[in-house]
Design a protein that fits this description.
The structure is a single chain. It is built from 15 helices and 23 strands. By secondary structure, it is of the alpha/beta class. The strands form 5 sheets. It has an 8-stranded parallel barrel with strand order 13-14-16-17-19-21-22-23, surrounded by 5 helices. It has a 5-stranded parallel β-sheet with strand order 2-12-10-11-9, sandwiched between helices. α2 packs parallel to α6 (236-245). α9 (335-350) links the parallel β13 (314-320) and β14. The longest helix is centred in the last third of the chain and has 17 residues, at 453-469. The chain is elongated, with a radius of gyration of 28 Å.
């Protein structure tokens, strides 16, 4: 049950008003858990984002720090950590606009960091009854707030590309249990029925824990986590400081997709958060972030790391059918020898690649036949029990598997469903070979087959739903093509599924001039959002490219298959 951003903000604003301080000084902030397990703060206004974030995690903050997005932002973040206070930032010259968000936190004092005198005066005028000061030494003493121990919140923080923050290291372990309505021992309970205390923030500095003063860090129960994820921007420094004041864990997510980074996946799997807040439009919709976090929390990673296939790795595959040499190199040796053979190919490409090179088997699961067979479909569906030993051993050895379908007169979707038990495995994808797709009056080897893209889209929809249902890493879908007519209405290919990575595999053979011509045609016809693969034929290419020559193909294929 994810909350829409406006609903979250309204809920927290009203509950904050209900908890107004009636008398005296509150020496410690009161934290509260977010009212929904997933939210995205995607406003382009830093004041809106930081105000919403503070309201989601605090019902009362005796001190609030205010700054603009200029050079003083870093100083303000440090001051907020020291004061155990939320930090609000505004666009240049707009600090007074933060007054409503600050007032909603019921502060006794506001620290204005780096603001011109006139702007500080305007802020003070908008906060009657609140002491607005320019120096941390003018702030009253505050105690550390009760950390959100029922939910861990992961907040945004700047990070180098491809890395996770220090919070993604061992030390902030937790698993979820925080849901709306859970009560916490030392936290404030609001009108929305939620409560909690934040677990210690895990950051690169020893003081940035659930006890900002450097005191003993409270223990984190295995059921006491929520998470907030960030992509990094000017307001992220403020969001990080606010989260640390609430006792949250900060994880940097390069690119905004938590599935893409191994360290982020490990952190989320370890923490099993009960609430996640994405700060920035990079995180997409609440539904997208909810789905992606659910996958990351499984901790299951693809060969080569991460849960998103491309870019980030290159597959080098053997193609064929087990124990059937005539159908490709995969069947020219037994399972153990096939593993050795593909690993030898991978070693050659690793010397030529700057990224991970992953071995793969492309196994022909359903084989086109010259006779109609019992079903009259001119295809033989290899029993799952025959394929399972190959799939299990491949997985154990870090080899990705693609199950290839040659459907004859059968429907691609019907055949894909026959292999559902294998496709439910995290490192098994699907290949659709329309060369062997027959119309009702056709027989194999009398023509090059074709498929209407609507039938392909039906498969994609089913496979995406299956992948989402079991919270699996992205699945690879390989579409074979060497004639444009093989994929009819190709421009209508549905590439919108976040759970799938679609690859068009150029299967042309012959001279390198012919192959390059086919490659260019395939590239030109493909819709946006797909990746490309290249096939080397050991016998039918004249000549076959060496690994170093194959790597000169442009754009660089992310899958290279040997047949």
């Amino acid at each position: 049950m994810a909350c829409a951003l406006a609903a979250c903000s309204a809920s927290h604003a009203s509950s904050g008003a209900a908890r107004a301080v009636t008398a005296g000084w509150t020496s410690a902030a009161r934290t509260r858990m977010p009212s929904a397990p997933v939210a995205v703060l995607a406003s382009s206004s830093p004041g809106t984002v930081t105000g919403q974030l503070a309201a989601m995690m605090f019902s009362i903050a005796p001190v609030v720090v205010v700054a603009d997005v200029g050079a003083s932002a870093t100083t303000a973040a440090g001051a907020a950590r020291a004061a155990r206070a939320p930090l609000l930032v505004a666009a240049l010259g707009q600090a007074a606009s933060l007054a409503p968000a600050a007032q909603a936190l019921h502060p006794s004092a506001v620290l204005a960091v780096g603001l011109p005198a006139a702007e500080q005066a305007a802020l003070a005028a908008a906060l009657p009854g609140v002491k607005v000061v320019a120096s941390p030494h003018q702030l009253p003493a505050t105690a550390a707030p009760s950390p959100l121990s029922k939910v861990d919140v992961l907040v945004p923080a700047p990070a180098a590309p491809g890395t996770a923050s220090p919070s993604a290291t061992p030390g902030a372990t937790a698993t979820p249990s925080a849901t709306p309505g859970t009560s916490g021992s030392d936290s404030d309970s609001g009108s929305d029925g939620t409560s909690g205390s934040a677990s210690p923030a895990a950051t690169g500095t020893p003081a940035a824990t659930g006890s900002p003063s450097g005191g003993a860090t409270p223990s984190v129960s295995a059921s006491d986590t929520a998470a907030m994820v960030t992509a990094g921007s000017a307001e992220d420094s403020a969001a990080t400081a606010t989260a640390e004041a609430a006792g949250a864990t900060v994880i940097d997510v390069p690119g905004g997709d938590p599935r893409s980074d191994p360290a982020v996946i490990s952190a989320l799997a370890r923490q099993r958060p009960g609430a996640v807040i994405g700060v920035g439009a990079e995180f997409g919709s609440v539904a997208e972030l909810t789905s992606r976090v659910a996958v990351a929390e499984t901790g299951t990673q693809l060969p080569g790391g991460g849960q998103v296939l491309f870019p980030g790795r290159q597959l080098v595959a053997l193609y064929g059918h087990p124990d059937t040499p005539a159908l490709g190199v995969l069947g020219q040796q037994d399972l153990a020898a096939s593993i050795t053979r593909v690993q030898g190919l991978v070693a050659q490409y690793k010397a030529l690649s700057s990224g991970p090179v992953v071995p793969a088997f492309e196994i022909i699961a359903s084989v086109a036949e010259g006779s109609p067979g019992p079903g009259g479909d001119y295809t033989y569906e290899t029993p799952v029990s025959d394929l399972l030993p190959w799939v299990k051993q491949a997985s154990a050895d870090g080899i990705y598997v693609v199950l290839d379908l040659q459907p004859g007169r059968a429907n691609f979707l019907d055949q894909a469903k026959a292999y559902q038990s294998l496709l439910q495995l995290p490192d098994v994808g699907l290949g659709l070979d329309s060369e062997w797709k027959l119309q009702p009056d056709q027989k194999p080897l009398e023509q090059i087959g074709h498929v209407d893209i609507s039938e392909v889209n039906d498969v994609l929809s089913w496979l995406a739903d299956l992948t989402a249902q079991y919270h699996l890493p992205q699945k690879l879908v390989v579409l074979h093509q060497f004639q444009l007519q093989m994929l009819r209405d190709e421009s209508d290919l549905d590439t919108s599924h976040d759970d799938l990575s679609i690859l068009i595999h150029m299967d042309g053979q012959g001279t390198q001039g012919d192959k390059q011509g086919t490659w260019n045609a395939v590239l030109g016809a493909a819709p946006p959002g797909v990746f490309f693969g290249w096939k080397n034929f050991l016998v039918k290419d004249h000549p076959m490219l060496t690994p170093s020559q194959t790597m000169t193909v442009k754009p660089a294929p992310v899958m290279i298959t040997y047949q």
